[in-house]
Amino acid sequence: MKTIGIIGGMSPESTVSYYQIINRETNARLGGNHSADIVMHSIDFETIVRLQKVGDWAGAGRILAASARKLESMGADVLVLATNTMHKIADAIQSAVGIPLLHVVDTTAQAVKAQGLNTVGLLGTRFTMSDGFYTERMKQHGIETLVPADTQQHTVHRIIFEELCLNRFEPAAKRAYLDIIACLKEQGAQGVIFGCTEIGLLLKQQDCPIPVFDSAEIHALAAVDYALG
Predict the structure, then answer these.
(1) Structural domains in the chain, sorted by start
(2) Out of 83, 125, 135, 197, which one is annotated catalytic?
């Protein structure tokens, strides 16, 4: 079993999900009392949020690169960054270490292609939906990604930071997200990517009218594949 290094804390709520999914899947595959070999470094999310707000992605990259090096020194064989947005600076993290970083867009794209879809909607932070790093990488996999209108992006982003990251899951937020998913479906989305690791804490497949791709779950399961591969 290889050691999984998790760069977490962004937010702590979704990092918990990564830990649970990885350990439960490891146990399901190996049985007994088996659990995953994990090392984790949890970052103060407020520091990252402040850097996001002022657009200091290089500064955030230096923090996450230092975290990656710390995990590598602790024996990690592979890295998982437990957030979608910060994959915007994935190259800075990967270049800082000699072990692979599993990219959330790549693992999610593979799940979309496995279902034979080529056009999906994307929900996430404003940065994930509009900065291009996510949609362009999906395009490299042959997948067209539809994003909500500007006002809808504002709603999705606000709910993530003001509610989901703080462990608040309101019925109004769920209704708002489902309305936005319905709009994406009307535009031709065959499925929807939960491109923020907290969205899967609010919505499940049974809530949605089209196939759901929960990036956090997909990403965490890909880490198990690697560790046990």
Answers:
(1) 4-103+218-228 (3.40.50.1860), 105-215 (3.40.50.1860)
(2) 83
